[in-house]
Amino acid sequence: MENVVELKNVAKKFKGFAVENINLEIKQGFVTGFMGENGAGKSTTIKMILNLLQPDAGEVKVFGLDYHSHEKAIKERIGFVYDGNVFFEGLNLKDIKRIVAPAYKRWDDDLFYKYIEQFELPLNKAIKTFSKGMQMKASLAIALSHHAELIILDEPTAGLDPIFRRELLDLLQELMVDGNRSIFFSTHITSDLDRIADYLAFIHKGELIFNQSVHEVAENYALVKGKLDLLDRDTEKAFVHIRRASTGFEALTDNSSEVKKTFGDRVVIERASLEDIMYYLKGGIHLG
Ligand SMILES: Nc1ncnc2c1ncn2[C@@H]1O[C@H](COP(=O)(O)OP(=O)(O)OP(=O)(O)O)[C@@H](O)[C@H]1O
Description:
This is ABC transporter ATP-binding protein. The protein is an alpha/beta fold. It has two domains: 3-213, P-loop containing nucleotide triphosphate hydrolases (Rossmann fold, 3-Layer(aba) Sandwich); 221-283, Alpha-Beta Plaits, CATH 3.30.70. It is built from ten helices and 14 strands. It has helices spanning 42-49, 67-76, 93-100, 109-118, 132-145, 162-176, 190-196, 214-220, 256-263, 274-283, and strands at residues 3-14, 17-27, 31-35, 57-62, 65-66, 78-81, 150-154, 182-187, 199-204, 207-213, 222-226, 239-245, 248-253, 268-271. The protein has a six-stranded mixed beta sheet, with helices on both faces. Strand 9 (199-204) and strand 10 form a beta hairpin. Helix 4 runs antiparallel to helix 5 (132-145). The chain starts with a strand and ends in a 5-residue tail after the last helix. Residues 14-15, 17, 36, 38-44, 188 line the site of adenosine-5'-triphosphate (ATP). Adenosine-5'-triphosphate binds at residues 14-15, 17, 36, 38-44, 188.
């Protein structure tokens, strides 16, 4: 399987925060959800993938190419979608198209108008009058009109109402029918990930905790409940984080089969939702 993005040992240090030793592969032809709590380092990582921020160490490759010698070729093939002031906000979509289109070799006017119609976006109204959702759609229409193979979205659904959110997710899923397109999107809304992600990358305090298919995550991670006397220095190693109460413990494991082997039916093993995983990892020091 080919990777559209490869980060090798990537690091970036800010005052009081660091993204460290990130090894991340984004698979071609799939939707990868990038999850992590506020301030975990999602935007920082995305900016490094887009070359908007240079890593202090490590290597970033997109489509197997590096920015050093292939910046233009890479950027032609990426669409970055977010709801900020991407465009001059006094301009309307017609003006923006006039400015943006010549920058892309593969710009497709017909496709642009098709998406404008599909997204019900006004061509002649200033972008500043657009709602958050409309801005997101405008940005997506532009990314799609230059046939971007890799679409990167930074928190595309944050601040959108539930209906719009669902519409956007459906749309992203439709885009995948095309074949070799890849989508990478960051979010902390776990239901969005449940809905469309094939792979999940999880970042916590600047460290990539895992990057697995949704099936692997469902297989490996589990919530385990049992009596306190089952825990000791050795058995605790099976858990990522443990919560103790007088009535017993509840813990998250990233190695469900090992827990089954160690504890058998002396514990109750339940499916861990993505929210459970985020919650436990957030509260957790890394054991084991
Ligand atoms: N240019 C910068 N200079 C200094 N610190 C920065 C800079 N950019 C980001 N940071 C810090 O890095 C940390 C991670 O920020 P980042 O935006 O990557 O998180 P995030 O996971 O995208 O969070 P959120 O979900 O809240 O958007 C934060 O503590 C932020 O203050």
